[in-house]
Design brief:
- This protein is an all-beta fold.
- Strands 2, 4, 5, 6, 9, 10 and 11 form a seven-stranded mixed β-sheet that branches.
- The radius of gyration is 13 Å and the shape is globular.
- It is built from no helices and eleven strands.
- Strand 7 and strand 8 form a beta hairpin.
- Helix content is 0%, strand content 51%.
Length: 112
């Protein structure tokens, strides 16, 4: 199983980033997928989750209305569109497969 995040970087407050999580080695279309994040000195927290068919998505209150999760089952990839970024969004973002497999994370830094 491979889970590889990309798309992180440095962005100014109010800016946008799109994270991608490319996967292989398992039946992607049958698994719910999640994005987590971990800020320095804090516990890892769930940001968003999407059902296997993409029909249901859930978000942490802190990102509702700003972040959008989506998936492309043909490409075995899940995305996280992040808009109106705030300094509090600074963290390492991790992709998770059905609470079992994790990616290595991608750093998102929101700073002026």
């Amino acid at each position: 199983v491979q889970v590889v995040e990309s798309g992180g970087g440095l962005v100014q407050p109010g800016g946008s980033l799109r994270l991608s999580c490319a996967t292989s080695g398992f039946s992607f279309s049958s698994k719910f997928m999640s994005w987590y994040r971990q800020a320095p000195g804090k516990d890892r927290e769930l940001v968003s989750r999407i059902s296997s068919d993409g029909g249901v998505a859930n978000y942490a209150d802190s990102v509702k209305g700003r972040f959008t999760i989506s998936r492309d089952n043909a490409k075995k990839t899940v995305y996280l569109q992040m808009n109106a970024l705030k300094s509090d969004d600074t963290a390492v973002y991790y992709c998770n497969v059905a609470q079992v497999y994790w990616g290595q994370g991608t750093q998102v830094t929101v700073s002026s």
